[in-house]
Every structure is written in C-alpha cells, then in structure tokens.
Amino acid sequence: MLKEVQEPFRRVCGERIPFSNVHAVSMSLPLVADVVGYEEKRVETLSRLKAGYPRFIAHAYVEKILDYNRERKGIEGPQFIVNSKKAAEHIVDLFGISSASILEDEGIVTLVFPDNKEKELEVLSFIQHTGCLVSSRKAEDYLFKKGLIDSLYSEETFKEEDPNASVCKELGNLYPGRNLEILLTTSGMNGIYATFKALDEARAKEGKILWLRLGWLYVDNIRILEKYSRGSRIFHEVADLSELEEFLEKEGNRVAAILTESPTNPLIQVPDYPKLKNLLDRYGIPLIADISVAGSAVVDLSPYADVIVESLTKFACGNADVMMGAVFLNPKSEYFYFLKDRCPAFVESPYVRDLERMAYEVCGYKERVREIGRNALILAKFFQNHPKIKAVHWSGSEENRENFSKIAREKDLHCGVITIEPGIPLEKFYDSLELLKGPSFGTEFTLNMLYMYLAHYELVSTEKGRAFLREIGLDPSLVRISVGRENPDLLIEEYKKALSD
Fold first, then answer.
1. Do residues 143 and 61 lie in contact, with contact meaning Cβ atoms separated by under 8 Å?
2. Contacts of 30 (CB under 8 A, 6+ apart)
3. pLDDT of 418-443, one tens digit each?
4. Half-sphere exposure of 391 (CA within 13 A, CB side)
5. Which cofactor is essential here (predicted)?
C-alpha cells in the first residue's frame, strides 16, 4: 500500500494529492525550496501547481470560469466566485463595497466590483478565512453544461434522495443520545465563522464582546477572531488554566466566548476539559471546540462544549477530495435555540455532489481512524526513542495523555496527527524524506507538512518572527505528520533514512 499511494510523483512539485483525482485538495511540495517558493509566490513554483488547498489556491475549474467571465462576458476588474448569493451579499455589506455587482448563471455566483486593491485583498482573505468558496464539483458541473469541458470526473458516491440527511445521520450516530443539531457547511472554517458570527451577535447584546483563544490555534481560527471580533486575547498555556482563571476573575463579565481546539494544531495540546467547563460555567461563558485534528470518531466534546465544529475534509473524508464541515449544536447550551435559529444565516450549504461523495466516504470513518490511531502510536514511540528527534507532540505524550483520555472515545484510541521537531537541519530531513509532503491532514495516506512555513511564513521568514516563536515555544522547523493506513514498519524505514547521517 505504501508504494501504491506514495510512489507516483512524490518528488514532483505541484502534483495533485491524491494524484489522479481532479478534486484533490492537496498538492506535492517535496522540497523546502518548493514550500518557500509557494509562500513567496514565485512564478517557477506557482506555475507548476496542478492543485492546492481550495481556500488558498483557486481550483483549476474556478480559474476556468473566471477566464470565461472575462473572455465571453467582458467582466473586468476583481471578480470572485463564491458559494451563494447570500455569501456575496454578506461580503458586500461587511466591507462596504460600493458599485458591486452580483451575477448569477446556472447556479454560479460571481461577485464583481471596481478596481480597489485594498478591498480585493480584504475579500480574498475573507474567503480564505471563512471558507465561503464555490465547490470544485459545482464549478465542474457548470463548465460541463457550458461545453467548456468534455466530461465529469467519475467517482464512487452514494446517490441517495437526501445525501445531507445521510451524512448527518452517520455523524449523529457518533453521539448517541446527545440529540445534537448538525449543520453541514462548505468547509470547517465556514462552520467556525457561522458559529462565531451568530454567537458574537447574541453576546454583544449582553455587553460581552471579548473573544478568547486557548492555545496556539490553526491560522484561520486565529485570523477570524483577530479580524472580525470586537476584541480577542490568546492564552498560550493550555495545560495550566491558572492564567485564564486569573483573567476571568477580573474580566469574566466582558467575555463573549472561548475558542479551543481539541487537540490544538500543530502541538496536539489538550486542556483539562472538566476543569475548563467548571471555570467557564462560573461566568456563563460558552465554549466552541474545533475538533478537526482528531475528529468526532476519536473524541467526544459534547459534555463540555456549547458548539463543536469539525472539518469533514479531514478524517471523515479520508481521501482529501471533499471540502466540507459540520457544526454540532449542543441542546444543553443556553444558546442552543438562538444558534439553531441564527447560524443558518451564515452557513454556506454544501453542493449536492459533494454531499454524495461525503455520504460514501464517511461510512468508513470509524474504521479509518482506528487503524490510523494504531499507526500513530507506533510512529510516536519510534520518534520518542530516536536520538535525532528533539520533541514529539502527540495525544499520548506525557504532557497530553491524561487530558486527552478525558475526551477520547476509547482508552487506546489516539489522534492521527503527530508533530515532530527534527534535531537535524530541516532541509536534510524534509528534502530526503521519500513520503508525500503537502498541506492538509486526515488522509488515509501519510502526509507530511512544514506547518509553520505554510501557516505562518511571515513569522518563520523574519528574525523578529522567529524570536517570537521561540518565546512561545514553537519551533519553526516543526513537521506535522498526518499518519496514514500504510504498513507502519515501512513508514518507519522511510523516516529512518531521512534521519540518517
């Protein structure tokens, strides 16, 4: 299985991951120089990309629609293909864009406005952070109807009468007796944004406007709170809640909500959720938990969180070929009915073909994470005992073991993501590693990523930024490993070679 999945094109920059899938959400970046070229937007790197994570790189089918708009419809200036008219109207209102046009054609919505570089960059960032983009399958159907492509990509799906209900049923089965309200979204980040907007609206009316982040979170979770809240604050210490407790004693009456990740990305840290829940209940502060790094089949945050958000693009999908997210609203939350009523105003609903593909893939969710978790345990122990690895961050580490066990569904079930700190030069390790390397995680095949380079290049690439990372305990050379289902002995052999003299 290792050779079948990892061998083709693993050394070629820009190839799709998965390679033969036109809807792939990752791409191969086999060298550190490729990662740097991608982040610095060098032509020699970007021109080789056949795919990319859709919130950051427009899919080839979306680019084709943009070209069609320019050439056949005469559209000039900034244009953005978004998921719905609702999303376009929200962008126009949020950024006060004057003279904007919202064009609809065969279900494809294009937002157009006069040249304004500042507004263009704001909208690009908003689409990246909040995931309101159009699906590659929706774009594909449009192009096929217009005669701009000859055929549709063939894939296995469950073509049911209501694929949305089918996916929700599979996810709901992971939470028996909890009666969670499940909303499917175009991406995990759209789920975060929708929850944030709805809850922020409710809490602001109570005079509570400060949003808290516990731990170093995924880049777009950070950006949503930094850019779109009325104020935010981070607490870097996850295991020790004393700093948070002291802050709440003084400012608890101003706090709107707190956002956590379970575990955090990339350090796989887990707070003591029973203790955190008791602390937040003291001040009536709702908790949003992003569980994407582990997934609903591995962890259960329903006893503690008012809202659970998951990127289904990851472990629920397993094949890195569907953009989708899920919001789980907890009926035990005092905000349940408000969120149930208000979240849909900001939720972007997935396209039917994406739902059909996800309905097929989610059926293998539990089996997938069990096998991946077993491999993660084996690999983590290998890295812990290797003299050229400085640190290993995983769900079974001494730091995380106890707290992770409080949210894990099974005693020996581990998160499928491991982050390591190589003790040898990064280029030597990364460039020589003969495994897939690119963004995203949760795949059935092992995928390695230079997390800090791809998520926070502005910090990695400057001395001031590196000093800040050292201060908060983040190694710029972190390698995040999404463990796959391959033979772990074969995986270990590849890591041994990359770490050898």
1. yes
2. 10, 11, 12, 13, 431, 437
3. 999 999 999 999 999 999 999 999 99
4. 16
5. pyridoxal 5'-phosphate
